[in-house]
From TrEMBL:
Organism of this sequence: Desulfosarcina alkanivorans
Modified residues (N6-(pyridoxal phosphate)lysine): 140
Name of this protein: Threonine synthase
A Gene Ontology BP annotation from the UniProt entry: threonine biosynthetic process
Keywords: Amino-acid biosynthesis, Pyridoxal phosphate, Threonine biosynthesis
EC number: 4.2.3.1
Domain of life: Bacteria
Enzymatic class: lyase
Length: 501
């Protein structure tokens, strides 16, 4: 659709132009730093940073209803740079010109309502947002599209060259980082650090396939993160973990898409996300706050952050009801099927504390809640969801299990509508499904299969058959007819089929 076919009032705003005044703002000392070079922590005090638009108030010159029309009409444009997360350019990366935007198909992932059976079992109307349908099959592509678009902008400006991007990962971050870096070759090369044998084979194959240098080290994600932090502090590399504030900006698109999908009506909505390194929940809160401040939404939805009991430092922090008594204590994690969330010392924890306070104050009432769930419930709810037409990963199971906890403790009511995050594609974690079906979980996971959820293939070879086909060895027509009848009769018997009359 051509721009001259749109309403005249929004034509000047349809194709975004570079603008804003972005700076890194330290959450510790509040010092602001320029964005001409890549920063991950404050040079003055070492605290984490958030990107702040010092000219954000310019966006308030457009009323909320007009912004809604801009985004709704912008979705009809054929310009690749605004097909993804940069549909919300003014809120995500306003300084990045469209010709620097890296678009690989990320964003605008489907929001699928649960069927009646699953909603009845869950006790609430809810939708899955399937972020596993991003290009590298996880939500991490949102942040990488932002971070790599900004680096591409710096490259085009001649401010950096021959960039080596590096990240620690439990799988999904490395896949996304390697994919987006590969697209920008030869200007960017990629290296990833993974905890040895703590990443699924499917996830390991992704950065290898994208040509990244992959290093496996002993320990868990937190150990990998310390090594990556040491490398970024000592050497000229681009850190692509969620410590990178540009990652947070890109992941805010998750909030914007939910608002747009539900016609910007957020008062009765609950957004459920798993917590790993705490970048995603940070981005979700920040995104809704921006839309609320500019009048695009008139109410802030509830946010529910979920953690496994095997990796729950954020939940433990907020389990203390009195804010002045809260102390964040990193923990030693145990094995978890929600592998990407198996993080005991999330780097974005200072952002969480800062934004939870801002979010609740803006709402005028507590709107951010936390829940912990068992490994058993994660697997049971993941399998239950997928038996009802979804493609939820273990983290999607974790989110749905957390919604059940919140319903039981009253943080969420059955009259609300929930949007549940499935952060990655189910196939990335199919090994855990196999372990469930085969009852082969190591003791550390504390998972016992429910027979009602177990499934497996059945080999069909009726004992009466003397001849069966084999590759390169077809049966003669008479023997093949006997084979087909015997096999079909056994399958029909197993399924309880009745003959046609």
């Amino acid at each position: 659709m051509r721009t001259d076919q749109f309403p005249e009032t929004i034509r000047p705003h349809l194709i975004p132009e570079p603008g804003g005044d972005l700076v890194y703002r330290c959450l510790g000392c509040q010092t602001e730093h320029g964005i001409e070079s890549l920063l991950y922590t404050c040079p003055d005090c070492g605290q984490v940073l958030l990107l702040h638009d010092r000219n954000f108030d310019r966006l308030k010159a457009i009323d909320g209803e007009t912004w809604q029309q801009i985004f709704d009409y912008r979705r009809m444009l054929k310009i690749p740079a605004v097909k993804g997360i940069y549909r919300y350019h003014e809120f995500i990366g306003p300084v990045v010109p469209l010709d620097s935007v890296v678009y690989l198909g990320e964003g605008h992932t489907p929001v699928v309502e649960a069927n009646g059976t699953l909603q009845e079992k869950a006790g609430i109307r809810f939708f899955y947002k399937n972020d596993g349908q991003n290009p590298s099959a996880s939500f991490k592509d949102r942040g990488m599209a932002s971070a790599l678009s900004y680096i591409n902008f710096l490259i085009r400006q001649g401010l950096v060259d021959q960039v080596l991007s590096i990240c620690a990962s439990t799988g999904d971050t490395s896949a996304a980082a390697a994919l987006y870096a590969a697209y920008l070759k030869p200007h960017i090369k990629s290296a990833v650090l993974l905890p040895h044998k703590k990443v699924t084979p499917q996830q390991l194959s992704q950065p290898l396939g994208s040509g990244a240098d992959v290093f496996e080290i002993p320990g868990v994600f937190d150990d990998c993160m310390k090594v990556v932090e040491a490398l970024s502090e000592t050497y000229n590399v681009a850190l692509l973990n969620s410590k990178n504030a540009w990652r947070i900006l890109g992941q805010e698109s998750y909030s914007y898409e939910i608002a747009q999908e539900f016609e910007y009506a957020m008062a009765d909505k609950v957004v459920v996300v798993p917590i790993g390194n705490a970048g995603n929940i940070t981005a979700v809160m920040n995104g809704f706050l921006k839309f609320h401040e500019t009048g695009i939404i008139d109410a802030l939805p509830k946010i529910l952050g979920v953690q496994s009991v095997h990796a729950n430092p954020v939940f433990e922090y907020y389990s203390e009801p009195e804010a002045e008594k809260r102390r964040f204590v990193p923990m030693t994690v145990k094995p978890s099927v929600a592998q990407a969330a198996m993080i005991g010392n999330p780097v974005s924890m200072p952002r969480v504390i800062h934004l939870v306070d801002r979010y609740n104050r803006a709402a005028g009432t507590p709107r951010v809640f936390f829940a912990e769930v068992t490994e058993q419930d994660i697997m049971d709810w993941q399998l239950t969801a997928n038996r009802n037409g979804h493609i939820a990963c273990t983290h999607g199971g974790e989110s749905l299990a957390g919604l059940q906890v919140a319903l039981k403790n009253g943080a969420v009511t059955s009259s609300e509508t929930a949007i549940v995050d499935s952060t990655a594609h189910a196939l990335k974690f199919s090994g855990f499904q196999d372990m469930y079906f085969q009852n082969s979980f190591p003791d550390g996971y504390a998972v016992q299969p429910d027979p009602a959820l177990v499934n497996g293939p059945r080999y069909v070879h009726p004992p009466t058959l003397k001849q069966v086909p084999a590759p390169g060895k077809p049966l003669d027509p008479e023997a093949f007819a006997v084979f087909v009848k015997a096999v079909s009769d056994q399958i029909a018997g197993d399924l309880g089929l009745k003959k046609r009359t």
